Amino acid sequence: MNAGLKVFAPASVANVACGFDVLGFAIEKPGDEIIVRFSDKPGLKITAITGAKGKLPFEVEKNTAGYAAQRLLEHLGETERGIEMEIHKKMPFGSGLGSSAASAVAGVMAVNELLKRPLEKRELLHFAVLGEQLADGAYHADNVAPSLIGGMILIRNNEDLDVHRLPLPQGIYASVVYPHVKILTKDARAVLSDQVSLSKCIQQSGNLAGLVVGLYNGDLDLISRSLQDVIIEPQRAKLIPHFYKVKEAAMNAGAMGCSISGAGPSIFALSANSLIAENVGAAMEKVFHDAKIPNELFVSPINQEGAIKC
Ligand code: HSE
């Protein structure tokens, strides 16, 4: 039997408060799994999709994972190869956890592994971003890059994929709460004004630079002061019920910072260690619980490996 191989690509938190479209980190769970194997019939075929409640297309050109993998196969001149792909969605769509990015990453990673790694992991980035672009219309790597290579990633420039891994002080943990409210990235991008005042631009630049310095120096107070989004969060907060209450609960429980995860509705907090992160997560979750909004909590170290063959 041709068992093929399986890869896992993790969820990710984009923006990280002050880095809209230019910062992101991966978490350990949840994530997507893709199984690929060679077949006798030429071309890439999606043969199974689970966990998507019938919402994902089997057509390769319309499916995030399939589209990304197909672009990679074209680049490699392997379009006649018979490959079957099974997609096992193990994370929610429209959650702000980089669901489409994880699928795209898993798609390219799986095909690359099946072909015995013709490209290095980092060289897969462009193809995975094409898959993400199919899903939300924008060419941005702030979910894809951390899901692929792990860690806290700065994207100096999305067009050139000028991507850099930032150091992380030991022990930093994330708490991410996903309230079951649907927000599509396209819609959350549509609410944003394209005008930003000079004073807000100055504050946000200071925060982003401060966060980078804080990460390099292991300065938790500086990280905490810098984890503030004065541009995007105020415009998107209204899309997430009880956002400011959840943020207040997280900060009162000892988080270093708290903001919207990607385009939302998930909300993330960063904490100095796992115990604080567990307390912070419980406090965030309680707000949704009290408001009778179903939710899921993920407490996780920053995933340093990204996508893996498993
Ligand atoms: N940076 C993106 C946004 C992440 O916030 O719209 C979601 O894909």
What's the gist of this structure?
With 310 residues, this protein is of the alpha+beta class.
Give a written overview of the molecule.
The protein has helices at 64-76, 99-114, 125-136, 144-149, 185-190, 198-217, 220-226, 233-236, 243-252, 274-290; strands spanning 5-14, 23-38, 43-50, 82-88, 152-157, 162-166, 173-179, 257-260, 267-271, 295-301, 308-309. With 310 residues, it is an alpha+beta fold. The chain contains ten helices and eleven strands. The protein has two domains: 5-166 and 305-309, Ribosomal Protein S5, domain 2 (2-Layer Sandwich), CATH 3.30.230; 173-301, GHMP kinase, C-terminal domain (Alpha-Beta Plaits, 2-Layer Sandwich), CATH 3.30.70.890. The strands form two sheets. Strands 1, 2, 3, 4, 5, 6 and 11 form a seven-stranded mixed β-sheet that branches. It has a four-stranded antiparallel β-sheet with strand order 8-9-7-10. The mean pLDDT is 96. The longest helix has 20 residues, at 198-217. The structure holds L-homoserine. L-homoserine binds next to helix 5.
Helix content: 25-40%
Question: What global shape is seen?
Answer: globular
The number of strands is 11
Instruction: Sketch the major β-sheet.
Output: 7 strands, mixed
What is the total domain count? 2
User: What's the alpha carbon Rg, rounded to whole Å?
Assistant: 19 Å
Which distinct ligands sit in these coordinates? L-homoserine
The computed structural class is alpha+beta
Give start-end ranges of low-pLDDT stretches: none
* CATH architecture classification of the largest domain: 2-Layer Sandwich
Query: In sequence order, what are the helices and strands, one letter per element?
Result: EEEHEHHHEEEHHHHHEEHEE
| Beta-strand residue fraction | 15-25%
- The separation of the N and C termini measures 18 Å
By DSSP (H or I, 4+ residues per run), the number of helices equals: 10
Overall pLDDT confidence? 96
* CATH fold category name of the largest domain: Ribosomal Protein S5, domain 2
